[in-house]
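Weekly modeling sync, notes
Attendees: S.R. (lead), two postdocs, one rotation student

Agenda item 3: backlog of single-chain predictions. S.R. asked that every request posted to the team notebook include the full sequence so nobody has to chase files. The rotation student volunteered to paste the first one in as an example of the format we agreed on. Action items at the bottom.

Example entry:
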Amino acid sequence: YGYDYPAAIIITNTATHTGRFGKVHALKDSEATFVAENITENGSATINGIEMKASSEIEGVITSITLASGQVIAYRL
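Predicted structure, as returned to the notebook:
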């Protein structure tokens, strides 16, 4: 792979971050939009405006993360 597991990125801006992430952990209360391979919101792979409290986590195959606010750490697959 080019990195050692568990590689991660800390996201603190509102840019779109793409890749293959297995877990997103909220460092602060956050709001985010995800695109995922195996998580849906009402049948759509785009999950909009998810509110995450500090220390909460979402797991799955997530391919895109865009924060509206907060800070998260995203662990790569």
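Discussion: group reviewed the output briefly. The chain has a mean pLDDT of 93.
Action items: rotation student to repeat for the remaining queue; S.R. to check formatting next week.
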